[in-house]
Each structure stands twice: as structure tokens, then as C-alpha cells.
Amino acid sequence: MVNQGGLRSRSDKRGFARTTIIFFRERRRPVSRRLSATMPEKAVLQGLEEWPGIDLLSRNGNGGPNAIEVKGRAGVGEIEVSDNEWAKACNLRERYWLYVVFNCAGAHPELHRIQDPFGKLIARAKGGVVLDAASILQTAERNT
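Now predict its structure.
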């Protein structure tokens, strides 16, 4: 469901995480864990902290971990990242990816992937931090 600001609900976010897993499988990149940030007890059972600040944990080409946070919008616009998620992005830097899905409500959703969003995007405080759409579109890696 889309709220007034065009942001997707938490239940829809789980669908984005599933879509991301499919994306990884298509590209033959193994996803080692799918996390549920809304259920801290599951994260703890997987050996993580209660609120890990990520949605997915995958393995990169060298076998090392990549942390992935997934955000979605019905259209194109700014996204909000929680303080916890932003702190994790700050700590993990090159191992942290932000996946932003724009136009989720339409027939052609767009995935934009940004490695090290803490180092590459300018944020402004608003509860968590807010990242504007223009910066996301300019900084995201191009899907080939």
C-alpha cells in the first residue's frame, strides 16, 4: 500500500526484498541471508543484532559480505533512511548497498543500486535522513 507521501508500507517492502533476491539469482550472485528488519528476534537467531540496519545480506565476488537496504516509492521522489540504517551505512561504507526501487506502483519499476551511499549521497536530517531522487538517479549504478 502507498501512503500519502508515495512511500510504500512495510509489508510492501518485504515484496521489494523478494524482488531483490530474484534480481540476485538472475545475475548469479548468491544471497546468503534474507533478513527481516521488522522482526528483531529473527535477526538475532541469524547471529545479528536486533535491528541490523539492513534487509539483505549477500556475498560479493570475493566471498565477503555485502549489506543491502531496500527502499521503494510508488513514483520517483526522496526516500527516508532511519538513523540506524544510516549509521550502518557509515560503518560498512563499501560493503553497504542502498537499493531504491522507483515507480513501484506502475508497470515498470526501476531498481537503482548505490554502493556506499554514506560516502556518495548528501543527506538531510528528518527523523532519519532523507535522500533526494535527483541524487539517487545521478549516483546509482547503471543496470546492464
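Confidence is low (pLDDT under 50) at residues 1-8.
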